[in-house]
Every structure is written in structure tokens, then in C-alpha cells.
Amino acid sequence: MKKNFLLVEDDPNDAYLVELEFKKNPEFQLRWVKNGEEAIDYINGSPPYNDRIEFPIPDVILLDVKMPRVSGFDFLEWLHIKSNHFRLIPVIVMSGSDLEEDVNRAYELGANCYLTKPTDWKKFQEQMTRIGIFWGEVAYTPKLPEH
Description:
Helix content: 25-40%
CATH superfamily: Response regulator
CATH topology: Rossmann fold
Structural class: alpha/beta
Shape: globular
CATH class: Alpha Beta
CATH architecture: 3-Layer(aba) Sandwich
Largest sheet: 5 strands, parallel
């Protein structure tokens, strides 16, 4: 059974690197949105994300925090306070920031994991592989209704 990951990332270069790693495992399906506003629309199934075959509820969300429009922090707040059962979806924050206040805020808002993005390509690949193995193959994630 495929694991569905939603990447919320405003940097197309970072998104491309994540996509490269996730394509290596045919059991993983990765969808990408560019900011927290699009992520809310995706999770809610609002157009253009209303086709749940093409845009399934994610099993895991990979979230950047520093984004325009709706930041990752704002998205976490929406997911864990304002959404209904979607707050059960595990969220892995992947940020360029290692500031203690950012780490603490992400966990306070319900993040399940906080990682800094390595600048070294090989380390980035290793991090994505570990995320895929743990969250895609080892960890159980809640199954949520499609609406």
C-alpha cells in the first residue's frame, strides 16, 4: 500500500531534491504544494485539489516553516487547532532554521519532528532516505476519511 506524502515547500530547488529521493521508492507518492495556503486547500480537498484519487489525504506532511502567504507555523496552528480530524496527520518540519525558538514553536504547535535541511547534497539524500524508511515503512500513521 502506497504511503502518501505532502511536501509543503516554497523553494522549487528543495522540492526537486525531495522529489528525486522519493521517486526512488515506488511505494511512496509525493505531492507538492508551494505554501501553507495551498496546503490548507489540499487538506480540505478544495479546488483544484478536490479529486482525492489524484490528491489523496496525506499519511505524512513534510513542512517548511519560512514561506510566504501562510507560513509553516500558521499551517501547523490551523492543522492542530482549526481543522477537525486532520490534526492526526504526522508533520515533519524541515527547515533551514535551527533557531531554538523555531524548534520550540514548531513542537508547541504540534509538529512530530523537526529537522534542519542539510546544505550538503549527500547528507540531504541520507536525511530523505531515513525519513522515507521511518515514516514510509516503519511508522504506522492514522487512516483518515477522505472527506
